[in-house]
Amino acid sequence: MNKSRFDKAFASFIRRGEEKITPKTFFQVMAEIEQERVQKTIELQAKIIEGKLRFETSPEIYVYDNTIVLGNQRIVVRMS
Amino acid sequence: MPQISISLPSHLTTQHRRIVLKYFEKTQRLSPQEWKAALQAFDMLKKGTIEIGRRRMSFQQFYDRYVDYQYADGFIAQLIDLEDFERGAETLQQKTAFDMLAMLEREGFYNENLTSCEYLAAYCLYWWTSFAKGYRFEISIFRDLKASDIKFVAHDLRKRAERRSPYDLVVLRQVGDIKNTTYFLHSAHALPLNRDFYITRLYHSQRRRYLTVVFMTKAAWQKLNGEVESASLETAASFFPQPVQIVFEGQDFVIVPFDLWKENIKQRQQ
Fold first, then answer.
1. What are the strands of the beta sheet with B244-248, ordered from one edge?
2. pLDDT per position as a tens digit, B83-99
3. Collapsing DSSP states into helix, strand and coil, what is residue B6?
4. Domain segments of chain A: what residues?
5. Tens-digit pLDDT profile for residues B48-87
6. CA–CA dist B26, B253 (Å, integer)
7. Hey, which residues does B35 pair with through a beta bridge?
8. Is some CB atom of chain A closer than 8 A to the CB atom of B190?
9. Is B27 on the interface with A (CB under 8 A)?
């Protein structure tokens, strides 16, 4: 550990005050956050058959009727 | 004195550690990728642990006990009572941060012989600064809203339980938070943005000053009859400080200057 380097960094940070985050940096960081979270997009097709939503089978994710199975979760999509 | 040891989360990489130091040394030189990594690192660090004798606690629990409980109420009370708020708040914030670091050293939590203690100190300083800047900003916004005759209901900052309420204020039945820029980004990184609006601020390089903005859902802006142009996250900055609509994680948000938001609020409240 180089305590003196951290001491100096902490003191400079405290005295410097503000981060001065510009709109450009702000939106770029938001884009980075979004990109990290959305690792993959899966598109599903669905049809309305006799008034009920029915997903078409997908090679990427298990779906049946109006249900998506994602890991240990079952997502049931209902029409309002 | 009890024996003290510190363990960092196993998923905190060498790169994260490097960026934690860079955050304090050269905040303005962080790239967007490094900003994201810094937010990640400070989030991960809450799961670091410190053992003091037989007592073991996370960095987050340590912060609550040794920093928040010791300094927060006094800081807020002094902040609210300041006569010269702008000048006094900066001085008070700096003094409290140095006092907090000195306390960590005095109590044996930050010294050359304690492995990884610099990250405990970094965690405490990051969150203390977020807290202090956040409430300075919040108080200045409340004062501005009162001076502008905006009707709003806000939590009582002097009461710890109310400070931890799910939102900071209600205006026209819309719930909102007031967040310093770094803490807003931290929230966007760690939590879903589920308030109707967030009051934050961005630094305008040409004008060399901060401009307060309201980051709100499109639905909240539509209720105020606001107009806006759409942009991507890549192009949104070029609209600043004009209102702009973006999509973030599939949800439509609008960023408008604080003064314009206040004008529209006042029109609805009259």
1. B153-154, B169-171, B174-178, B197-204, B209-217, B251-257, B244-248, B229-230
2. 899 889 999 999 999 99
3. strand
4. 3-37, 46-76
5. 999 999 999 999 999 999 999 999 999 999 999 998 998 8
6. 30
7. none
8. no
9. yes
Whole-number Å distance between alpha carbons of B19 and B246? 29
- What is the rounded distance in angstroms from the CA atom of residue B214 to the CA atom of residue B243? 9
Residue among B33, B210, B249 whose CB faces A32 most closely: B33
Q: In whole angstroms, what separates CA B236 from the centre of its chain? A: 22
- How far apart (Å, rounded) are the C-alpha atoms in residues B5 and B181? 33
- Taking the CA of residue A74 and the nearest CA in chain B, the distance in Å comes to 21
Q: Can you tell me the distance from the alpha carbon of B81 to that of A40, in angstroms, rounded to the nearest whole number? A: 51
User: What's the sign of the alpha-carbon dihedral B35, B41, B44, B46?
Assistant: negative
Residue showing tokens 């550690």: B17
Say if the Cβ atoms of A9 and B185 lie within 8 Å: no
Report DSSP letters for B207-238, one per residue. Answer: TTEEEEEEEEEHHHHHHTT---EE--TTTGGG
Mapping DSSP to helix (H, G, I), strand (E, B) and coil, where does residue B65 land?
helix
What pTM, to 2 d.p., does this model score?
A: 0.84
Model ipTM value: 0.90
How far apart, in whole angstroms, are the C-alpha atoms of residue B107 and residue B101? 10
